[in-house]
Design goal:
homodimer, 343 residues, 434 Repressor (Amino-terminal Domain), Rossmann fold, 13 helices
């Protein structure tokens, strides 16, 4: 701006007034022309912020995240948010922070200074999050995380419903002895999916058996290592905390000459892009609705969708049926059922 | 800014001069104080752009990408770029475009208007890219892609070296009958890795046999579907275009009762986070150096690292040795070798 002012022989303030196209500015046509000529000659670009200050906001929505852009797990949150933002004329600008608090402060500060329409604050797995204080200066919606105080609007996956849906995929095929391989990590996913599992069993009149509840590392090694203990309890179906656990379970079962779904029906969770559809047999699972979480976050931010009274929007986790669940019949299920009938 | 001017009883131009803290501005101490008071009272934030205009640049580097933030494949490009940017006091701002050209124009325009230090333009797989014209107005470095005209600096994976390294992992264990399952997709990866394979064979004195070159869809189904044809050629080792292909190959071999590495040694490519370390046996592979691509992109952009004369920086693809390659011995390899000796 200083260069333009020098080239045009006017003050920086005059350049600012011309660029902002203020109708009430008392600037002669000649000076105005010289500023425009200088801008063109110097390749100067219009001042976005000045425009924002006039119009009261920019065309950008910020997304501040711990690691969604860098982990292979939740990228569809970004996809959903940017598609929805674009529908309403906004562009998503992303800052992926990876625990660098100073970078987070700077990125948020930049977004606020440039008057983004609002900010989505999002995490790569569903958890409690401390909302950075400066974000309270703008519209903020949490996505895939929540403020324990419940004072910020949040869009999260419906973990309990997801756990119920996963269990129902097994119940509806006649399974009654259903195990759950949960995660060792305390989290909304751990608690919610277990609760959903118990609710589904209860609704089907199947007694809850703690011996069928396992906790394992939430990856392939967890599913692989638990096989022996799992089989010792004689389940006919198993609900895995995530698709990675199911992948490890597949390997463990195969090594013992067991077939899916004939010997054991398997349900995953996540519908993880690189895995779920590509296991043999393809994995029946429950999807984490990442795309919808991002899209709903933008809708709540823009006021297109209302958050309920408690500010918490739960997005459903839908069933994705493939080939790893078959009917409960044959040796696995029947002897147990007969035993329970005191025959 | 208009609100501040009204509250302080001064012109917008005066507010601009005060905010920019211009030492040569002729503004009374009283007016200056009123502006500062109004700014505080209204919760106005310092004008980042005005500051940029004074200092000649912002603390941000832009990353414009097709889909790195949303696919599960190349997120570490972002990780490497942001770590390196931060080392030099910059923050990475990401626009993930997904083919939306209008959004791309807007995001780039915003970055230029806000005087980012420069822009990385990056793709989720290695390919030729058309550089958006407005990016020529700033410093730009291509990452994981290149301009066919060769007129823009580019940081790309060393595909030929990667193919050579993958093949050498098999050669050094005594394998001589080595197959390659390449991709059906024309790409730098297809051409480069095949060339590396041929170079490694030649250096080892092993004749190139076109019957050992297969093309398959670059995912699990491709690796699974090619098994029969592959085995008919009697290889003792196979270099797969990527880890997903290797995963499908694992399934196909297991169904035939064959063991890895005893019956067939397998090498992947990518070192894909969700898969490579988690197959059974864990997959020996060659890593796509995504983190290093992003970091090198920032170094070239900032002038910390020079691009060679042709503007093309190749980043090495290192071997990641796990358990899917064993020595070439036993029935697979020997009869062929004997046959070649005309015994």
């Amino acid at each position: 701006m200083r260069e333009v002012a020098e080239a045009a022989g006017v003050s920086v303030a005059t350049v600012s007034l011309v660029v902002n196209n203020k109708p009430d500015a008392r600037i002669g046509a000649d000076a105005r022309q010289r500023v425009h000529d200088a801008i063109r000659a110097l390749g100067y670009r219009p001042n976005a912020l000045a425009k924002n200050l006039v119009s009261g906001g920019s065309r950008f929505i910020g997304l501040v995240t711990d690691a969604i852009a860098t982990t292979p797990f939740a990228g569809q949150i970004i996809h959903g948010a940017q598609d929805e933002a674009w529908k309403h004329g906004y562009i998503l600008l992303i800052a992926n922070i990876e625990g660098n608090e100073e970078a987070e402060r700077e990125a948020i500060s930049m977004m606020l200074e440039h008057q983004v329409r609002g900010v989505l604050y999002s995490t790569w797995y569903h958890r409690a999050a401390a909302v950075p204080a400066p974000l309270r200066e703008t519209d903020v919606v949490l996505v895939n995380c929540y403020s324990p105080a419940g004072d910020v609007r949040a869009v999260v996956p419906a973990e309990v419903q997801g756990g119920r849906t996963a269990t129902e995929l097994l119940l509806r095929e006649g399974h009654r002895r259903i195990a759950i391989i949960n995660t060792t990590t305390p989290s909304p996913a751990h608690d919610g999916r277990l609760r959903g599992y118990r609710e589904a069993l209860e609704a089907a009149g199947v007694a809850y058996d703690p011996a069928l509840v396992f906790n394992a590392q939430p990856d392939q090694s967890g599913g692989y290592d638990v096989v022996e203990h799992l089989l010792a309890q004689g389940p006919t179906g198993v609900f895995c905390h995530n698709d990675r656990v199911a992948m490890g379970l597949y390997d463990g079962l195969r090594e013992r000459g067991l077939s899916i779904p004939e010997d054991l029906a398997v349900v995953g969770f996540d519908n993880q892009e690189v895995i779920a559809a590509h296991l043999r047999p393809p994995l029946t699972t429950v999807a984490l609705p990442h795309y919808e979480l991002g899209a709903a976050g933008v809708r709540v931010l823009l006021g297109v969708e209302d958050a309920p009274g408690d500010g918490r929007v739960e997005v459903a986790c839908p069933a994705v049926v493939r080939s790893s669940v078959g009917p409960a019949q044959g040796k696995g299920a029947v002897p147990r059922a007969v035993g329970l009938r005191r025959s």
